[in-house]
Amino acid sequence: MLTYQLIEGAARRQWLDDLLLADEEVGMIERYLMHGQFYTVSDQQQVIGVFHLMALNNQQVELKNIAVRPEWQHRGFGGQMMTQIQTIAIDQGFQSLLVGTGDGSLAAIGFYLR
After folding, report:
1. 41 near 50, Cβ under 8 Å?
2. What was the pLDDT predicted at 102?
3. pLDDT digit string, tens, across residues 76-110
4. pLDDT given at position 105
5. Which helix (H) or strand (E) holds 107?
6. Which in 26, 47, 75, 81 has the greatest CB count within 10 A?
C-alpha cells in the first residue's frame, strides 16, 4: 500500500532530482516548488516517487509534476498515484484537474491518456 506525505517549505528541495525525472528544467521547477502541495510517495517506507499540485483557482488544480523513480516504473505505481491525486483534488473541492506536460514523448502522453 502506498503512503503519501505532504512536504512543506524548503524540505521540498531535497527531492529536486525526483522532480527532474519529469521536468528537465530546474528553472521551471523553481517557479512552482515553493507553492502548492508537494507530496512524496512511499512503498513500505521507501520513497518511490513524488508529485506536485497547484491550485489555479477555487475550481481547478493543476498537476505540475509527477515522477516515479526509474527502478519503480512499469509496476502500476504511476496509475495508483494518479488515482490518489484525483481523490485529493475531489476532497479539496476542486472540480477539475488539469495535467500539463512539457514532455512531448509518446510515453508521457500515453500515460496521461490512461
Report:
1. yes
2. 63
3. 999 999 999 999 999 999 999 999 766 554 455 45
4. 47
5. helix 106-113
6. 81
The letter for the amino acid at 17 is D
**Joined grid coordinates for residue 80:** 495508483
62, β-bridge pairs: 54, 98
pLDDT on residue 100: 76
Question: In this structure, are residues 68 and 77 in contact, taking their beta carbons and an 8 Å threshold?
Answer: yes
Beta strands in the chain (DSSP E): 2-7, 37-43, 46-55, 60-68, 96-99
60-68 and 96-99 as β-strands: parallel, antiparallel, unpaired? Answer: parallel
**Helix count and strand count (H, E) for the chain:** 4, 5
- Cell numbers found for residue 55: 491550485
Task: Quote the CA–CA distance of 47 and 88 in Å, as a whole number.
Answer: 19
